[in-house]
Amino acid sequence: MRESVTRRRTQLAIALAAAGALLGALGVVATAQAAVACRVDYRVTNQWPGGFGASVNVNNLGDPITSWRLTWSFAAGQTITQLWSGSFTQSGAQVTVDNVSYNGSLPTGGRTEFGFNATWNNANNPAPTAFTLNGVACTGAPPTTPSSTTPRPTTPPPTTPPPTTPPPTTPPPTTPPPTTPPPTSPPGTPPASYPNPGQVTGSTGAHDPGVVKTANGTYILVVTGNDLPIKTSTNRIAWQNAGVVWPGGAAWTSTYTAGSRTLWAPDISFRNGQFYLYYSASTFGSQRSAIFLATSPTGASGSWTDRGLVIESSSSVNFNAIDPNLIVDAQGQWWLTFGSFWTGIKMVRIDPATGKRSTSDTAIRAVAQRPTAGGAIEAPFVYRHGSFYYLFVSFDLCCRGAQSTYRIMVGRSSSITGPYVDRNGVQLTNGGGTQILAGHGSIHGPGHQAVIPDADSDVLFYHYYADNGASFLGINRIGWDAAGWPFVF
After folding, report:
1. Is the dihedral of CA 224, 225, 228, 234 positive or negative?
2. Of 131, 137, 168, which Cα lies nearest the Cα of 54?
3. Which domains does the chain have, with CATH numbers?
4. Residue 180 to residues 6, 32, 185, 197: CA-CA distances in angstroms?
5. d(CA 254, CA 95)
6. How confident is the model at residue 285 (pLDDT cuts 50, 70, 90)?
């Protein structure tokens, strides 16, 4: 029987070889190629005078592919100025976007998303009507643009988009700018100029860092990215990749992410004998957003349990439910701050038994807002020091590479719910805020901060952009002046 099978296989091989020879004689080259089929969904997420933001979903309906190139043409002179989760070139009207290493492989039925900012002529902003993926024309759902009757905001998109650098499985594209070794003890007065980030090595690409120090001295850092990437360190200097929170994805968030696996702005802490992780699901420029909760006994990749929705937003409310931060006050009561643009930073009460919103106190409190600058405030973080609660926020614009204008501001209050005021007594709900860190030299747009206590001092974690537009992890120590105001050194 085995000899019979072998003989048939040999005969088939001879036949195939003969067919190949015949095709060669006819000038036909036979190559094995994956069948490409695709759908592209293009959506303008926000529009302002002279500019707009858009998200593009690429859906692979054919054979699995290991890399992709998407091409389209603009019809009205639109010009891309920045793009994340891909690399792009534009020649006249034609745009070509290539994958980056972490989103190049698309299984059958798989999808990926990238976003961009672009300029337009203030008169006409039609969506592209045709896309090609690896040279094959795609069909797609009808693209959407803002209605001509919908009021358009006067500022760039109000939410934090996916990072401009790969998740932490990809080494950072360049060496970060020079770092400053920490001094041996906190100074009593601020330095004359803003410091460079402290020394970090290893996997240093990061966006929207959330951090906790465990009982055994290990630091766990969770950042924005596909499935929420995790990094760890034993000394706050050398960082390594440690997988993702959701190795199998977080399908329950897809209503808010348009199917993307990119999740934003994680906040991690250790409470009640376990790790709590609040994180955001949204798309760039959208108010259709949600904050979810997960818990874990260890904080390790794959150990997390979904605890469900905490709060969501839509066009029917005046806030945007992203950028969460959990704070426990001196009386042991839990609070969640969150918010981005719109009417600013909000606070809700949390039930410690569930980690979800209190059912007895459902108020949504306003704690910070910018009536100017298009409302550009986001990324709240509340930290208790001495007799005050300090509300750290990021002003201005994130996620524009080296053109980012993020800066870290602070106000304080003797009450967890405010009012928070800056050093000059201006309430943060009236646009107040005392600046403690801003761009300088080759450090651009530092922001989305987190603060933890440590053995040597309080420590500030944040992201910033290098000259080449890549985002990195920044770490500095915090000192406190004689009046009780924080400064970075």
Report:
1. negative
2. 131
3. 38-138 (2.60.40.290), 201-488 (2.115.10.20)
4. 69, 54, 14, 6
5. 27
6. confident
CB 80 within 8 A of CB 92: no
Candidate list 208, 323, 396, 422, residue with the active-site label = 208
Among all chains, which residue has been given the structure tokens 């920045």? Answer: 82
Q: Is 378 a catalytic residue?
A: yes
CA distances for 428 relative to 137, 284, 320, 349, angstroms: 51, 25, 18, 20
**What pTM value is reported for the model?**
0.69
| Both structure tokens of 53 | 């933001």
Residue in 41, 227, 323, 378 annotated catalytic:
378
Residue range 406-464, pLDDT digits in tens: 999 999 999 999 999 999 999 999 999 999 999 999 999 999 999 999 999 999 999 99
Least trusted range by pLDDT, from 46-60, 99-113, 172-186, 308-322: 172-186
Q: What are phi and psi of 62, to 5 degrees?
A: -110, -150
Q: Are 284 and 159 in contact (CB under 8 A)?
A: yes
Classified as helix, coil or strand, 373 is helix
Asked whether the beta carbons of 246 and 227 are under 8 A apart, the reply is yes
DSSP assigned state of 447:
E
